Amino acid sequence: MTKESNTQPAPKVGRHRVYSNEQRKDRNRQAQAAFRDRRSKYTQTLENAIVNFEETIKDLKESNSQTMKRAQVAEERSHHLASQVASLQRLLEMALTDNQRLQAQVALGNDMLPLSPNSDILAPDKMPLTDPMLPLFDTNPIIVSPMLSSLASDDQFDLFNASMSTGESHILKAVL
Question: Which residues cross the membrane (predicted)?
């Protein structure tokens, strides 16, 4: 056995290259250019998404601001209406008290108008041509009514006149 027989060339392992070094470099350049192009497009897509999200955030902030303003206005209006309801309830209580007092006066003395709507005095042909309720709906801020002049306290009358002069509600006139 000779040494030459042991030194046979070993078979090549691994990938057999079919391309020359120049072809391989060209393919690598193309692959790298395609990668850079894909990365650039992906980056551009992300940048566009960021711009869209920023616009959406801006729109949502504006919408939120407008909604907050509307909610504030609604809350203020709610408080205002609640105060009007409270003052109307006080006026209604005063009117009911005055109504009961007038009914008691009518019951004691028959010289005033009867309370019955079936009375001859309240018949349509005997009704006055002017409505006695018209002065109550006048735009004059200070209203002097016989009903109000007999209230239990001057503070209630002052409250009523103050609410009428500030234009708090035209409904106040209609209640009385």
Answer: none
